[in-house]
Amino acid sequence: MRIQKLRENLEKDSHLNSIPHTPRVNGEIPDVSDATLDHEPLSERLTTYGLAELQIEGDGNCQFRALADQLFRSPDYHKHVRKEVVKQLKNFRKLYEGYVPMPYKNYLKQMKRSGEWGDHITLQAAADRFGAKICLVTSFRDTCYIEIVPKGQNPTRGSHVPTAEAYFMGFIS
C-alpha cells in the first residue's frame, strides 16, 4: 500500500520522476554536519509519500542493514546480504570494475569486512543479485528519487527475495 501510494504521488509530480542510476567513481563522503542539515528535507519527502523512517544502526553496515530490512524484513540479515553482494561483485567483475576507484581486489577485500560502508556500486550489485528494483529517496536537491534496477532484466521478485519487487531506502547526501 505504501509503495503504491508513493508510485501514484511520483507519477503526479513530474519533477520527482526517477532518474536512471548511472554508477560512477565515488567522490568524497559528506561531512557529518552536512548530513545533519540534510535530514530535514529527507524526512519531509518521506512524510509526503507516506513512508516512515526506520533508524538503522550506524555501524558502517547501515546500507546492508537497510537492504536486509527491505528484502528480508529484518536488519539482522545484513551479513547475508553483504556476503551475497560481495559474491555478485566477485563473480561479475566486468560489470563493476570500471566504477571502482582502487584496485578491484582491494575493493573486494574492503567490502567483505563488516563495518565497511556500502556505496553505489554495492547498491547496483544488490539490485543485480536479488533481482530487485531499489528506490532511493534522497536529500539531494536535484534528484530526490533514484531507481536502481537490475542490469539486463526487468525488476521482478527474485528467488532470494521473499516480498515485493520494489524496495525503498532513504539516503542523506
UniProtKB/TrEMBL annotation:
<dbReference type="InterPro" id="IPR050704">
    <property type="entry name" value="Peptidase_C85-like"/>
</dbReference>
<comment type="similarity">
    <text>Belongs to the peptidase C85 family.</text>
</comment>
<dbReference type="InterPro" id="IPR003323">
    <property type="entry name" value="OTU_dom"/>
</dbReference>
<feature type="domain" description="OTU">
    <location>
        <begin position="51"/>
        <end position="167"/>
    </location>
</feature>
<dbReference type="GO" id="GO:0004843">
    <property type="term" value="F:cysteine-type deubiquitinase activity"/>
</dbReference>
<keyword id="KW-0378">Hydrolase</keyword>
<dbReference type="Pfam" id="PF02338">
    <property type="entry name" value="OTU"/>
</dbReference>
<protein>
    <recommendedName>
        <fullName>ubiquitinyl hydrolase 1</fullName>
        <ecNumber>3.4.19.12</ecNumber>
    </recommendedName>
</protein>
<keyword id="KW-0833">Ubl conjugation pathway</keyword>
<dbReference type="InterPro" id="IPR038765">
    <property type="entry name" value="Papain-like_cys_pep_sf"/>
</dbReference>
<dbReference type="GO" id="GO:0016579">
    <property type="term" value="P:protein deubiquitination"/>
</dbReference>
